[in-house]
Amino acid sequence: MKYYKIEPVDSLFFRDGSPYNMDETQTDVRSIFPPTPYTLTGALRAAIARDMGWVSGDWTENIKDKLGDGKNIGRLNFFGPYILKDDEPIFQVPRTLMGKKSDDGSHWELIRKMIPGEPITGDMGEKIRYPSLTGNEVDMNNITGFVSGKGLHKILWSDDLDDIEIIPDDDIYQFEFNVGIKRDDDLRVDDGGLFSRRFVRLNEGNWNENGKMDAISILAGIDGTDSRISGPIMLGGESKAAFVDGVDPIRLPLPGDDAGIQKEFVVLLITPARIPDLSPGCNIEGLPDDSKLVSVCADRPQMIGGWDHNRGPQPLRAHLKPGSVLFMRSEEGINPYQLNGIKIGKDTEFGFGQIITGKW
User: Fold this and answer.
1) Which strand ranges, in their side-by-side order, compose the sheet holding 325-334?
2) Of 245, 287, 282, 288, which Cα lies nearest the Cα of 269?
3) Which residues contact 146 (CB under 8 A, 6 or more apart)?
4) N or C: which end of the chain has fewer CB within 10 A?
5) What are the tens digits of pLDDT across the range 35-45?
6) Dist CA 143 CA 101 (whole Å)
7) pLDDT digits over 317-339, tens only?
């Protein structure tokens, strides 16, 4: 396994699923962050191909033999993307976390997490254990942002959440708006000639108490190739420049020392996942056969498509976002160490569906 850190030179454009076509009025086409696994996979495969001598056009057969062709990526297996802060991985806050901010709004003074509650009859007539808060707290809001690996371990394996440090999104990246027009030879703007886009810029970082810069970067892992890449690459929409270099492997948060066999366990997604069936009682592809879904805590699905060099744009499909939580139950119980870091659902070879385990 090889890991690569990616440091952008400028702002980046990872557009969402909104239409973005010529001769249509475009208003605020958004960039998402983190980028999807497809984006990183495409950029790194292209960089490896260039290292093997590719310049333009279709890949030669020797390149296809090592890197696959189109959506068939052959022997390659990707992991990530991950976000690094000062070269340490940080993770999006699990959607089970809720809190109450201080009076001045500077920090979360009360943090609690949701677990499946008592069964409630849903619209389809089935009894479902929807996620609910324990205790009698009121005026609680969903917590967004990022958390360190140490903080994530506490969230997944401890009920003591009082000293969890939440890293706001604004400390990691900022959005920048860009407005453009298409003009004809007479400098006139026709209908559909106005567009606006929202780029994302990673923070350059702040000086921390140790005298180091908390720089933000992107990380991805590749297995199945002997190639090593280093130097400039093109990343995301408009082929923005970034630098890539090999780094030491990262360590994902591990289960607690006393984790043991778990019959009721949490699956936290740290990369997007495409799981077509999320009905209560279903089995999730990649998890043990006797483990069944109890409930889900997630945002609206993220619509992810992609681009195939040979076939053009690919259809949009619904994916669970990173930070989504699946509550599972196994009659025999599972070993959380064996599942920690595996990938579930569809298209896992691209990096989709990587998980970290926890307890209810």
Assistant:
1) 291-297, 325-334, 262-269, 355-359
2) 287
3) 83, 85, 90, 91, 92, 93, 166, 167, 169, 171, 172
4) N
5) 999 999 999 99
6) 10
7) 999 999 999 999 999 999 999 99
Percent share of the chain, pLDDT over 70: 92
Task: Report the Cα 249 to chain-centroid distance in Å.
Answer: 18
- What's the pLDDT score for residue 215? 87
Could you give phi then psi for residue 121, rounded to 5 degrees? -75, 120
Bridge partners, residue 297, by sequence: 325
SS (H, E, C) 32-100: CCCCCHHHHHHHHHHHHHHHCCCCCCCCCHHHHHHHCECCECCCCEEEEEEEEECCEEEEECCCCEEEE
Which range among 96-105, 212-221, 265-274 shows the weakest confidence by mean pLDDT?
212-221
Residues above pLDDT 90, as percent of the chain:
63
Instruction: Give the angle 338-79-6 at the CA atoms, nearest 5°.
Output: 140
Beta carbons within 8 Å of 177's beta carbon, 6+ residues apart: 28, 196, 197, 198, 199
Residue with tokens 């139950």: 329
Entry pTM: 0.90
The label of the residue with tokens 């995301």 reads 236
